[in-house]
Amino acid sequence: MSQKTITDDACQGGGMSEGSRETLRPLSDEEVSLWLSVTRSITPRPGASAPEAPRPKPAKPAKIVAPAASAPAQPLKPAPRPGMPCLAPLERRARQKLARGHMAVDAALDLHGLRQHEAHPALHGFLVRAQLQGAKIVLVVTGKGEGRAADGFEPGGVLRRSVPIWLRAPEWRHLVVGFEEAARPHGGAGALYIRIRRRAGAQS
Questions:
Q1: Residue 172: how many CA atoms within 13 Å on its side-chain side?
Q2: Computed over its alpha carbons, how large is the radius of gyration of the chain?
Q3: What is the pLDDT of residue 1?
Q4: What is the largest CA-CA distance in the chain?
Q5: Pick from 154, 157, 161: nearest CA to 144
Q6: Rounded Cα–Cα distance for residues 176 and 130 (Å)
Q7: What pLDDT, in 10s, does the model give residues 34-69?
Q8: Is 187 exposed, middle or buried (0-12, 13-18, 19+ CB in 10 A)?
Q9: Which of 19, 92, 133, 166 is the most buried (most CB within 10 A)?
Q10: Are 50 and 32 a contacting pair, CB within 8 Å?
Q11: Cα of 198 vs its chain's centroid, Å
């Protein structure tokens, strides 16, 4: 009889005493969801309770990333004109020879008495002809600009200021290598030595 009691107790208690039962851990949300999906089509036995479905976790608010501040746009610099040669002064030895009369200019042009609209084409045509003729250094007289022109309409010194501006123009760079004030025997501040650029393809 005692053996039967022990056997029944073992069958009912699973062979373990009440004090030796293992502690069950709570199910995780993933395990509860899996269990509910499996037992959804099974009718539960009377008195049995199914675990509650896990509540969805609130979504974390998305982080708003502010756009990076862009650097202020820099103004575009005008690109230099390709192939434009720089102006160059006369060689020191050549200037000394000109000043001492040991070397003569290849051609000369006197702009006295001309207005700007007359002097500009006259100077350009003179430089073109000088280049075609193979000239190296020419003399252009502008006048010192003291007083007024003979007709009284234009103040003196206009050509003295305008001619250097014309000679520095990019569209004249194919004709002019450089220029500078002439020596006193050739007019000093009222005249210019102009170096003529050799024509492309011309033999030296």
A1: 23
A2: 52
A3: 45
A4: 156
A5: 157
A6: 11
A7: 767 766 666 666 666 655 655 666 667 666 766 666
A8: buried
A9: 166
A10: no
A11: 36
Which pTM was predicted?
A: 0.55
Say if CB 131 and CB 199 are below 8 A apart. yes
| CA proximity to 127, closest of 186, 179, 85 | 179
Residue 47 burial (10 A CB sphere; 0-12, 13-18, 19+): exposed
Reported as a single tens digit per residue, the pLDDT across 80-136 is 455 667 888 888 899 899 989 899 999 999 998 899 999 999 999 999 999 999 999
According to DSSP H, which parts of 91-145 are helical? 92-100, 116-132
The DSSP secondary-structure symbol of 17 reads -
Task: List the beta bridge partners of residue 194.
Answer: 138, 179
